[in-house]
Request: fold
Amino acid sequence: MKKRLITLLSVMFVAVFALAACGNSDETITLKLADNHPEDYPTVIGDKKFAELVEEKTNGRYKIDVYAGGQLGDEKSVVEQLQLGSIDLTRVNATPLTEFSEDIGVLSLPYLFKDEESKWEHLNGEIGQELLDSFEGTNLVGLAFYDSGERSIYNSKRLVKTPEDMKGLKIRVQPSELAVNIFESFGSSATPMEYGEVYSAIQTGVIDGAENNLPSYYTSNHYEVAKYLTINKYSGPPEILMASQSLWDKLSEEDKKAFKEAALESVEYQREAWAKLVEESKEAVIENGNEIFEVTDFAPWRKAVEPIYEKHGEKYKKWLDKLEQ
Reply:
């Protein structure tokens, strides 16, 4: 009987000790952050800085392991895992997130901001926070915006300098009504197509060109088959650093503040890495002999997309009014 009592007391002691250990505030909790870009890509550089800052601001209580290169799945599956709580954090582009927050679609409108300075002043400020809050009720929590550059146009036929030069060009666009409407407003023939098909489609003349940010133009090798690049920066939906609601609900108010601060502070590092990549890509394209035209007078381009605001503006009126204030 004594032996059984000692054994029972021992089991109870172990259980109490284990519970005490689980509640120990000094215990390190390791979280997973997913990114489908390579290790040296600007968003991953931002992710890693965010992880470093979180660890620092929580005195090592939270450690974030960054899984780059799509190790945990593509963006769609990662967002689903984030909603389920099986992944804690991720970085994803704003465009596909319109499925969860229609409001975030305002960031895809052409020439939405006056300039780059204005864009980041808004995204890092009150309006940006309101847009991040628009994910409430979706099991997703927006933390900060990362730079994904500005999208421009490239083609295999001629150097485009004005919207008039776009007439007759067959340009691949993302499969969305807004993207099609934008390029129709430029006077070109908009052709929705999967991204992986673009190189061969330009090469064989199925399409004349496409649109993307400068690093993607270079890394996708599209510059090999479309030698004319027009930097008209017509649209620039950002990336978003996100947390799962499951993780967020477990954090104390103090830790939530630390995570938000870390996210915002990491933006500067991510944007610096992005600017560096843009310059490197531009130099490589010039070295290849491609012709580049950088638009300085955006008035004709802004004029060309006025019908877009007539058609899609009502949906985003609340946000457009805020941006004009």
Observations:
- Residues 1-24 have pLDDT under 50 and may be disordered.
- The two ends are 80 Å apart (CA to CA).
